[in-house]
Specification:
Elements lengths: L9 H22 L2 H13 L10 E7 L7 H7 L6 E9 L4 H15 L3 E6 L3 E8 L2 H15 L7
Parallel strand pairs: 2-3
Antiparallel strand pairs: 1-4, 2-4
């Protein structure tokens, strides 16, 4: 006489655990208040903060202030790589955006090819040499292609 043993394999155990997890999840979802689920989505949409500019991996940082070398001199001392991007960030207090933009533009003329970011925050100027994040590279590519357009096609 031959005896066939029907055992429980790992597939059965996983199936049982999956069913238990499904029942626990379904039970928790059923107990939630539908109004409580909708509120966070509305709050997130109306109170979203502006996205900061994309930044890559910094290699060197220059911060304007007493004792800082002139930007052009500092840039000349830095080893350069064609994959690097110079980013000038000007932060401003409420009502001082135009002044921050003017200071950032003056530094951009001194630095040559640089990306300029003006954002609210604690007032100050910072220059970063770094490898761009993928989003920043896209912005740089778009900027470069816009510069090659005839002037009548520019926005």
């Amino acid at each position: 006489m031959m005896s066939i043993k029907v055992g429980t394999g790992w597939q059965t155990i996983i199936a049982d655990l999956s069913m238990i997890l499904f029942m626990l999840t379904a039970s928790a979802v059923a107990r939630q208040d539908p109004k409580a689920q909708a509120a966070p989505a509305i709050t997130r949409a109306t109170t979203s903060t502006p996205q900061l500019a994309p930044r890559g991996e910094p290699v060197a940082v220059w911060i304007a202030g007493e004792g800082a070398p002139p930007l052009k001199e500092w840039l000349a001392q830095q080893p350069r790589d064609p994959r690097q991007q110079v980013t000038i960030t000007a932060s401003y207090a409420p009502g001082a955006m135009n002044e921050a933009l003017a200071r950032a533009q003056a530094l951009a003329r001194e630095a040559g090819d640089a990306r300029v970011v003006v954002e609210p925050g604690s007032p100050g100027l910072r220059v970063v040499i770094g490898y761009d994040a993928p989003e920043a590279r896209l912005a740089r590519t778009l900027r470069s292609s816009a510069q090659t357009l005839p002037s009548k096609d520019r926005p």
